[in-house]
Write a structure and sequence with these properties.
Blueprint (H helix, E strand, L loop, with lengths): L3 H14 L5 E6 L20 E7 L2 E6 L2 E6 L4 E6 L14 E7 L4 E6 L7 E5 L6 H4 L10 H9 L5 H6 L9 H11 L12 H22 L7 H7 L19 E4 L4 E4 L1 H4 L16
Antiparallel strand pairs: 1-6, 2-3, 3-4, 4-8, 5-7, 6-7, 9-10
């Protein structure tokens, strides 16, 4: 899933390559992707793309006062295209969801792989009209240390869930929450409101460092190479069975109904493997 660093890097990429261009038309290939009807997608045609911003994991394209807002969900991505085909795409064929044509013949595709479709596209007059944006907590890279500590102190639940709750902190998803907890040497199942002062500050510093370093690796990349750059920097996420780069212990996994987390026992849980969540034997 694209998270704060990838969406921020896409924002920078589009500012460089697309801002100042006129949108000639927008093609909808996956009807389920569009979540609004007023204004229609067709209202963007003939308007200039004047700015790009990020709200948590939402990408916001300002098109002369209208906003094309995108949430890439788990398997969505933006592909920059040079010389887009002029023929409209056939609905329901392949991963293409939305195609945006710009005046010079270039543009970009919004695609989504897999059968579970979550990519969401909105055309609104204000980003605040998008329910997911209206509910966002402070941005993970903008929140100060005292606010971060206070947010966690008031949250009942495990750290993994707290870091990925967009109403608490905006921008962190499954991958970077694993990386942040590993860098902070904390169990994903530790309760958020039970952190010591040292642990809370350690977690804040790990969050800032992990996201900042990932962003530095991503910005300046072409859109096509960002996913690979993300994978290259991961220490534990999606590395089940491989050695931890810090201590050499084997990275382990806990599986849930539709997702999983990865962690290092030596670095994070005192050497003890975490029980499977479904067995309700959680190590804190």
């Amino acid at each position: 899933m694209p998270e704060l660093p990838e969406v921020e890097a896409l924002t920078a990429f589009l500012r460089e390559h697309a801002v100042g261009s006129v949108v000639t038309r927008v093609d909808l290939a996956a009807v389920q992707a569009i979540k609004t009807f007023d204004p229609p997608l067709s209202a963007l045609g003939g308007l200039e793309l004047t700015g790009v911003a990020r709200h948590g994991k939402f990408l916001d394209l300002d098109v002369s006062g209208l906003h094309l807002v995108v949430h890439l969900a788990r398997a969505g991505w933006l592909h920059w295209r040079t010389g887009l085909p002029t023929a409209p795409p056939k609905p329901g064929k392949g991963p293409l969801a939305v195609r945006v044509h710009l005046e010079d013949g270039d543009g970009f595709d919004l695609t989504e792989q897999g059968t579970r479709k979550g990519l969401a596209v909105y055309v609104v007059r204000s980003p605040a009209e998008v329910p997911g944006i209206a509910r966002l907590g402070p941005d993970a890279l903008a929140v100060d240390r005292d606010t971060f500590v206070a947010l966690l102190a008031g949250r009942s639940g495990q750290l993994k869930g707290a870091l990925t709750d967009q109403t608490l902190l905006a921008g962190i998803g499954n991958a970077y929450s694993d990386e942040i907890l590993h860098a902070a040497r904390l169990s994903p199942f530790k309760m958020a409101d039970k952190l010591s002062d040292d642990e809370a500050l350690r977690l804040y510093d790990a969050m800032r460092a992990t996201l900042t370093e990932a962003l530095q690796r991503q910005v300046g990349q072409e859109a096509a190479t960002m996913k690979g750059e993300k994978r290259s920097g991961l220490q534990v996420h999606a590395r089940t069975g491989l050695p931890c780069p810090v201590c050499g212990d084997t990275v382990r996994e806990v599986s849930f109904a539709d997702t999983s987390l990865q962690y290092c026992p030596t670095c994070q849980t005192g050497g003890k493997p975490l029980a499977d969540r479904r067995m309700s034997k959680l190590l804190r």
